[in-house]
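Hello again, I could really use a second opinion on something today. My current little project is about how a certain protein chain folds up. You're getting the sequence in one-letter code plus the fold written as tokens. Here's the protein in full, and shout if anything looks odd to you:
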Amino acid sequence: MTETTLFYDEIKTPIGPLLLLSNGEELVRLDYGTMRDLEPSMTKWGARYFTNSVFVNDPEKVEHTKQQLRQYFEDGKMDFTINFVFYGTPFQKRVWQALYDTIPYGETRTYKDIAVEIGNPKAVRAVGGAVNKNPFSIIVPCHRVIGANGKMVGYNGGLDKKEYLLTHERAHKHGRSAVITD
């Protein structure tokens, strides 16, 4: 059985540590937390999508992503130029691609908007489930999805992080510095 090496590193951000995971060519995950905290779930995820996955700490393999995340938090970088690949069900991939393609920096959409975007307007709950499983926090902007009533609902990283990210983006979009609290 061949081994699949997955490379990882972490970055400290104003909203806590982020774990970056790469196959050596593309980013495969970006999650809230550290490898120490997430190792059981990463091992389970790796076993689902790869043959005999092994995790190796290699900051160089994810440096480009770390640099862009620093620019996002420090300078309000609005676009990411990162090669990444989705691992999930076909439905999840459609939802995640719609998030990435259709929600501009500093704006929001509802779960219903995303369901309509993927051509399945009655799948609002299923869209919510897929959004919750987004493997690329921040880069694939699930934090920009809100409830039909305009309120912030559900966020895998916690509503405090969602609120911070939306405030940060709106401030930078309008030429102001966001207030960073830690």
Remarks:
- The chain has six helices and six strands.
- The helical segments are 35-49, 63-75, 90-102, 111-117, 124-132, 159-173.
- The two ends are 45 Å apart (CA to CA).
